[in-house]
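call fold(seq) -> tokens
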Amino acid sequence: METDSFAPIVLFVYNRLAHTRATVEALQKNKEAAESELYIYSDGAKTESGREAIDEVRQYIRSIRGFKHLHIVEKENNQGLSESVITGVTEVLKQYDQVIVLEDDLITTSDFLEYMNQALAFYKDDLSIYSISGYTFPSPHLKEIKEDVFLYPRPASWGWASWKNRWEKSDWKMKDFKKFSENKSSIRSFLMGGEDMYMMLLKQQRGLIQSWAIRWAYTHFTHHAYSLYPTQSKVRSIGTDSSGTNLPSTKKYDTEIREGVLHFIPQLQPDYSLIFRLKDFYKPSLQRRFINWYKFGVYSWLKASK
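ret:
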């Protein structure tokens, strides 16, 4: 098991050359890049017509320089993002104790790797923290936070890091879901990360979506754990332009990214009053709630009728 002070970076790419190039070029501006192993997982095409775009991405990633070593895993068949992330992160954590994870549509600050590596080292033994988030959602309540970092029960999927001994706690099949879904108190506690979370978990369990992120959030919940966030985001998504898998075109998640050394707090405790206010960012409108439940009912009926 390698315990290098610089965590390996795992990057998942698919068919968006311009997004991938922007992601890599931002990462290369980090001084720690030269000391970091970079693992790139390139997913296969869904159809024959999609191979050209994937080949363009693969030609580019083979030319990447500026990292300690470059490791590329090219999949012949399409796994989908969810399976790619679960498989790829698990494989890399067989060799390392910690990992930094990115997707192909994220712009990071030039001190992103410094923040991630320092946070991984600082909170390594704090088992109430299961992940380090690089992206911070643009809530107006962030200005209430006096410290540089805070805890939130919902992990971010846009630029994050974790440790082997946390990741391996995940039950990706969620065998205890039935018991959880019958406990209204547990559901209310899970919703502290956002009112959209239980619906996503239901869709995942019914096979209507494939999301590694909601299951990773469930792992945090079942182990009474949190994700560490910077009050000023180190990551900005450029994938909310309808080019990605899960999000339509939207400005909701746009945020400014800031460089600057962050001061970590030992034995950091969650501020539940703050968490309650922050979760409003993920509160869907009444119209959106109706649409979600309507679609869920229709999809469930169609699936059951097959």
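Residues 33 and 67 are 5 Å apart (CA to CA).
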